[in-house]
Amino acid sequence: MNRFLVVLKYELKEYFTNKVFMGLTIALALFGAAALFLPRFVDMSGFTGVKTVGGADDADEDQGEKDIFLYVDQVGAVRAEILQEMFPEVLWQAAEDADALQKAVESQEAAAGFLVTGKTEYEYFVFNKSMTDHNAAMFEQAMKLFYRMDYCRERDLDLEEISLMYDVPITVTEQILNKDSGSNYWYCYLLVIIVFMLIVYYGQMIAVSVTNEKSNRAIEVLVTSTSPNSLLFGKVIAGAIAGVFQMGVLLGVILLAYQVNREQWGGMLDMFLHIPGEVLAAFAFFGLGGYLFYAFLYGAMGALVSKTEDVSKSVSGLMVVIMLVYFFSLLQLNNVDGEVIKVLSFLPVSSYSTMFARIAMGTVAAWEIVVSFLILVLSIAGTGLLGAKLYRMGTLRYGNPIKLGAALKDIRKSN
User: Fold this and answer.
1) In whole angstroms, how far apart are CA 99 and each of 39, 138, 246, 414?
2) Phi, psi values for residue 125, rounded to 5°
3) pTM higher than 0.90
4) Residue 232 belongs to what H/E stretch?
């Protein structure tokens, strides 16, 4: 135990005295917090729908910054006041003729132009059309409204009465008795990505750390002063603590900053950052368990090679498994009560992401959570022992990379 604590203390010191590690953690946390505090200092009402900066002066300034849209009405159908209501962020002006309209758009004096050639026909002029340009679709709705107004006026009909008949308001009250999968989908998606990145990034770091010690022969000194088990468990647990610390700081700062500024964002990021406590708890337990499960395997894979350039080859099979689980987990988020994700939520290779997704979005019994976590814990213990044996066997073997199959055969023979 003392040897394990010595290794753990040393490895933790390597992480927390590393300027790059700590600097990156602090920089990302500050960047995330600053981004979420932006609506308090910058007018982002066009994006968030909530105006939080300035007052009347800002309103006057916004009026001067509005885009200019031109129109030419050849049939007398356009109602400028209605266009202004439908496009509140735009300043509408009538152009002299089609040529003047086109020239203004070409010179970018106007952001867009509309040439109405008939009661149901118009041409749209724009210099560069972006992928998010919905002006033509909105103007089409305006044209339909103009047509209905003319049609009803010519036939002495009451457009307001007809509109009320077709657009009668319906009141609905949703009674969600368990989980709202639609609202919970995106933060589950985000958490699956986070735990995947945690496993791959820190697992790779552990594998490289082990291989570095073999490549510079430091392992020969280490194994004479401590046991391979203490070395592997110390490295893995230290990596887990460092990973949880870094991810905890980033996620904690971002979630806290959003809660402070949630009103300024108009709640628009709730789908990503308004995460229930039970889901965060499940993410913490299963995410950490999944990380430890794979971290032991990464450490063992690192011990099977003697050069850092061979690490990627050694862990390639493990990466295939992780990637398959990752994509299967994301694909099954649309059907969290299906049989496939239920099976995946009990397998140690995938429960780290699928079980907390079921907790957040589906129906899961308490006994299922307990059983899944127990299976994961037992698998971590088994993987740790297997990883320790592979690590012990591979630490003092140099030269060509050792194949996993051959290593497992040697372990069986030695037993």
Assistant:
1) 42, 23, 61, 90
2) -115, 130
3) no
4) helix 228-260
